[in-house]
Write a structure and sequence with these properties.
Length: 729
């Protein structure tokens, strides 16, 4: 029966094995294959279940005249549509209609028997034949629908989403014609300012955009600003959100909301000495105190919402019309997100151990259930409060995007799309059938994580994503591209294959699952062009060559880090060897800062936390680091970028930081990013994979200087000066 299990895995994309970064082969165990299929909703625990699942697949595959969706490239016609007919339908005349997104319709008729044949099958007592219908049409990029029906009206019509994608993603003029630009990468929560309430906010983001413009930068990359969990502010990881289609309202600049200017009660509350003292303490803290920030903001936001209801909703003002338009535009998706937040707050208030919807009473697990509808009716004010917060977040982030263009940033604001969502969040509650809740995404063993990684994020089920005509993917792209000039896609390899770990099994028994790569790339290009939004793919780690080969012609920028770009003998590559269509950087939020890399404090930290699998790996890392420092020092001197009499044992300096970035700026790559921590010589990295608080303060550390003082940093100004000269805007 193992061959039948292999066949079932092939149908649903569970790969038989993979090679790790050292070239070692791993075979997917039978136990893992059965568990991953079950996580997809495909029974495979026994031989009988495997046979039944194969039968169900074949029946659905042949009995459905059209697939749910087809994605093609612009200008590649004639488009060949595979259509499945029952044998007795072959002698009938059929009509087809292509309903274009513009409203225009193309029509025609055909006889199935006159079309080319692709295959035949006998399934469930019926004979089927698959034929190819050629569409001799020039179809513009967009979302269209193809409808087939018998001319005599027999049987229901068959429909398919027909998506025509452009040949590549959008490229802004700022990087066309060999132009090269640079920008910053920052963690928004880490920003200190005289204005914010203990963590960076959208008001700080606007001021950072203005700083970028003055510095000569062309973009600013943020950590993901996806919606987290308002009732659990300590759940701080931006890469484990409740939903990727909505925003984290803890980033709201409370005093910038129009109702704050109107509400004397809110202003009086904020103006009280005790409240101001609390704000001063939160601003002064070395780490973000998420609980205190959330409590301070929630109290005032509740006051602002009460003011909005009393002054505007009761009187049907212009602002009410804007709010209702926002609700109408986003419809059920917004209502369900707000309902989730209201329900989670309600049940968490009753029991503090309630961590997400799986811990709610079962009657509320289905968003369409009568108890959920009754809760919405009984607590509509509360539900609309969370809609109000999302409205304000959208207003503020849209304003930041507009400001980036006003300031002349050639690329604009760059947002970050996380690879997945938390198990108990709004996205999995709203789309339970789409997520494999009995599995999680992760990564196989690598040099840093020898045991592999389990990220705890339930992945999308590929065949159900296709059955939805990719609507959830389209929704995510639109939500994150709307205000942005660029979008970074975390773990972009996940568009082709994702490492799944079945619940209850060790990471070592994880396996790769395939996704409809070409279709997703096409939709990415379509939304990129429509939103005029550049795309950067995070393709670090063990990435198959075919992924990078597919991304390059699609204008999806690669990501290249100085730490990882190595020649065959292990030496760092010269910048001249970097690809042109790439975003280059020294480091990221998950890796050592430049200062830590230089003095090796990151290795010391990992040793203290026992993150190395053995002493051999530790010593190899130390030896490599000494070699890297020596090579880097020699290269910088040879290029005339460093005059200081530094040795490999010298402390890190501002001139060394500027020289490293000037060196990297010589790469032909179109975009270079500066990690903001490097602008202050910070040693601590924002996130240390494999740890959680309090072992390490992941996603909590603040920058040492206030935003208003950035221009005074010798590290920052040295880097800015070097990049303005190497890559003038």
């Amino acid at each position: 029966m193992s061959s039948r299990l292999d066949e079932l895995c092939d149908r649903y994309g569970v790969l038989p094995g993979y090679f790790d970064m050292w070239g070692n082969a791993y075979q997917t165990s039978e136990r893992a294959r059965r568990a991953l299929l079950a996580a997809m909703g495909v029974p495979a625990a026994s031989d009988d279940e495997i046979a039944a699942s194969l039968f169900d697949f074949d029946r659905d595959h042949w009995a459905r005249p059209l697939p749910p969706v087809m994605v093609v490239r612009e200008g590649t016609g004639p488009h060949r549509i595979a259509v499945s007919f029952a044998e007795d339908d072959e002698v009938c005349t059929w009509r087809w209609c292509l309903r274009r997104e513009s409203g225009w319709e193309d029509r025609g008729t055909f006889m199935p028997s006159g079309l080319g044949e692709e295959g035949r099958a006998h399934v469930d007592g019926r004979d089927f034949v698959r034929r190819v219908l050629p569409l001799e049409l020039t179809v513009e990029p967009g979302y269209h629908r193809l409808v087939l029906e018998r001319a005599d009206g027999g049987g229901p019509p068959a429909e398919m989403s027909f998506i025509v994608a452009p040949s590549c993603c959008y490229e802004p003029p700022a990087i066309q014609g060999g132009r090269r630009v640079w920008g910053f990468a920052a963690q928004l929560y880490a920003i200190r300012s005289q204005h914010n309430w203990g963590m960076g906010d959208f008001g700080d983001l606007r001021r950072m955009i203005e700083f970028c413009a003055e510095a000569g930068a062309s973009t600013l990359l943020l950590n993901p600003v996806h919606a987290l969990f308002p009732d659990a502010p300590e759940h701080a990881s931006p890469y484990s959100p409740s939903s990727r289609a909505w925003f984290n309202t803890l980033y709201l600049d409370v005093e910038a909301i129009a109702d704050f200017g109107e509400s004397e009660e809110a202003r009086d509350r904020v103006g009280q000495g005790a409240f101001q003292a609390q704000l001063d303490a939160m601003r002064a803290a070395v780490q973000v105190d998420y609980r205190s920030v959330a409590e301070a903001k929630a109290g005032v936001l509740e006051c602002l919402y009460a003011h909005f209801r009393a002054r505007h909703l009761a009187q049907s003002s212009d602002r009410v019309h804007a709010f209702r338009a926002f609700q109408a535009w986003h419809g059920d998706a917004l209502r369900k997100q707000a309902l989730f937040d209201a329900l989670q707050a309600h049940f968490h208030a009753e029991d503090s151990t309630v961590w997400g919807w799986p811990a709610w009473p079962p009657a509320y697990h289905d968003p369409q259930s009568a108890p959920v509808a009754a809760f919405c009716d009984a607590h509509l004010d509360r539900v609309e409060y969370f809609e109000y917060l999302q409205w304000q977040a959208s207003i503020q982030i849209d304003a930041v995007g507009a400001r980036s263009w006003e300031c002349g940033l050639g690329v604009g604001l760059m947002l970050d799309l996380a690879i997945g969502v938390a198990e108990g969040g709004a996205a999995t509650w709203m789309q339970r059938d789409l997520h494999a809740l009995q599995a999680s995404a992760g990564a196989p063993p690598d040099e840093i994580n020898r045991m592999g990684q389990d990220w705890g994020l339930p992945p999308w089920i590929p065949h159900r994503l296709t059955a939805s005509s990719y609507a959830p993917f389209i929704e995510l792209l639109r939500a994150n591209m709307r205000a942005a000039g660029a979008l970074r896609i975390d773990h972009v390899m996940g568009l082709r294959r994702l490492f799944w770990v079945a619940r209850g099994l060790p990471v070592a028994e994880g396996a790769y699952v395939q996704y409809p790569f070409e279709d997703l790339l096409g939709i990415l290009a379509l939304e990129s062009q429509r939103n005029r939004c550049m795309v950067v793919g995070e393709d670090l780690g063990t990435v198959p060559d075919e992924v990078r080969h597919a991304l390059q012609p699609m204008n999806v920028m690669s990501t290249r880090l100085m730490y990882f770009e190595r020649c065959g003998d292990g030496r760092m590559k010269p910048p001249s060897d970097y690809p042109g269509n790439a975003m280059v950087a020294v480091t990221t939020h998950d890796l050592p800062t430049l200062a830590a890399f230089w003095d090796g404090s990151d290795i010391d930290l990992r040793e203290r936390l026992q993150l190395f699998p053995n002493q051999e790996v530790l010593e190899r890392q130390r030896a490599l680091r000494v070699h890297d420092r020596a090579q880097l020092l020699g290269t910088l001197r040879a290029e005339g970028l460093l005059a200081d009499e530094l040795t490999v044992d010298s402390p890190f300096t501002a001139s060394l930081a500027a020289a490293v970035y000037a060196h990297l700026a010589r790469a032909p790559s179109k975009l270079l990013l500066v990690q903001v921590e490097d602008g202050f010589g910070v040693l601590e990295q924002p996130n240390l994979p494999g740890t959680v608080a309090p072992t390490y303060p992941c996603w909590r550390l603040k920058l040492p200087a206030k935003l208003e003082q950035w221009a005074d940093s010798s590290h920052m100004q040295g880097i800015v000066h070097a990049l303005r000269q190497a890559r003038p805007r």
